[in-house]
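Protocol step 4 of 6: structure prediction from sequence.
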Amino acid sequence: MNPHLLYRCSVRAPWLCWLCFALLLTRVQAQPTVPPRVDPAAERAIEKGLRYLARTQNGDGSWSSDAEWVGMKAREITMTSFAVLAFMAGGNTAYEGPYSDHVRRGLEFLSRNAGKGGYIAADGDYVDMYGHGYALLALAQGYGSEKRPEDAEKAHRLLENAAKAVGKAQKSNGGWFYTPGKKSMRGEGSVTITQVQGLRATKDAGVSVSKTTVDKAVRYLEKTRKGSGGLKYDAQKVSRGPLLPITAAGYASMMSAGEYRSPLTEHCLRYVEKETAKGTNLSAITEDNNYAFYTWFYLAQSMYFSGGENWGNFYPRASELLVSTQTPEGTWQDRTGKVLPTAVGVMLLQMPYNYLPILQI
């Protein structure tokens, strides 16, 4: 059974959604427990990371950044989204799996913070579009595990409103900025990428998504291309770049947008391949990067989506590096603190399981 079917069920036929979910659980239980690429050391690292995330969940179901940098203080929406995704990457849902309670409470926290305008934000009137995009991704990945029809309908409406909010926040040039207001009319590449993946996950969940919104976003990303290199920070002529994190994220989002063979998609992949060529020391790619695990998040997706030799070469090296750099308490760390890096590290190590629908491009 294709797990995608679960996320394409309409709330108009909840019995079909439940049937798909039951069949998916049967499929999951029938699969080998550990895929061939996940070795015992990676298994132990995964469990240590998940245990850390489980014990650091707040009483209200959220996770908070413990970063000293003021720009990353709290950020409950983003941190909760990544932590929930890390648990779901191993097959946990809101009602199944050893960490189901953590998934359920995390999703409930995100749902409670969806405002009337559709924006998902924990800090009153301030809307962080990064957090909104990641919350949309997490909620869409968890959609379908509701046990009651009224819960399924509520989740569907929430995703629908959140997707509409993304459309309303889009700038005239096709991109998105850090906040949805009119204060800045320019877009920014990394925020734009977050919205595109959130919209793809929402569409896979059976919610209508505006094709015009996605097409405008693709055109914006095309404007961030820098010559024969990768993608820049944004579409401004003086913008920094090309940058590996943005280019890897750009490739992943182009795949999410269904642009599998577009010139920009191929262009991004060639740049990422060059930067992560066989034999390259992966630690050198991120050691001077304050947001190292943002790079890991999208670099891993790029290698996974392109498959073949790219993924075959990347995963063993990435797994070995992550296992060797994990702390005794089960964490990894960068400027964002411990929660996001630990969630990303665990997600990457679990990618061979292929449980997250967003990976099933």
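Step 5 (inspection) to follow. Confidence is low (pLDDT under 50) at residues 1-19, 21-32.
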